[in-house]
Amino acid sequence: MGSQSYKDLTVYKKAFEVAMKIFSISKNFPKDERYSLTDQIRRSSRSVCACIAEAYRKRLYQAYFISKCSDADMENTETQVWIEFASACNFLSDHEQDDLMFRSNEIGKLLGHMITTRENIYPQN
Predict the structure, then answer these.
(1) CA dist., res. 36 & res. 33, Å (int)
(2) Does a structural domain hold residue 15?
(3) CA nearest 100: which of 49, 31, 24, 7?
(4) 57 located within any domain
């Protein structure tokens, strides 16, 4: 039996936690980064969650489900790039960067599993 809502998915919960952590941390980014790095890292981290929710709602259509999971993985990878930029600009501590990258890599693995398996996401034919 699958999840009752996209909010029940472990990958969604983990992605939401990362997006909220990024939101909190990025409040301390310099004001001159507001329309560039800050907006980009917040947008991409939130898009991971949105794509997972969309994939879940279209889970009966395998090709669409895989496409949206792939989009979530792409947004997750983009978030990693912004984390690297934030770290290189000294906006993140080493601990914050390591923690965010660890969590993001975990999300990527979960998304990869969702793309390659059908169990507990949508009905078997």
Answers:
(1) 5
(2) yes
(3) 24
(4) yes
Q: In tens digits, what is the pLDDT along the chain, a chain of 125 residues? A: 455 899 999 999 999 999 999 999 999 999 999 889 999 999 999 999 999 999 999 989 999 999 999 999 999 999 999 999 999 999 999 999 999 999 999 999 999 999 998 644 554 44
Instruction: Please give the residue range of the domain that contains residue 50.
Output: 6-116
Structure tokens at 23: 């939101």
Number of domains, the chain: 1
Of 124, 3, 118, whose CA–CA distance to 69 is shortest?
A: 118
Q: What is the pTM of this model?
A: 0.90
The letter for the amino acid at 107 is I
In a domain, 125, yes or no: no
In a domain, 90, yes or no: yes
Taking the C-alpha atoms of residue 101 and residue 57, their distance in angstroms, rounded to an integer, is 28
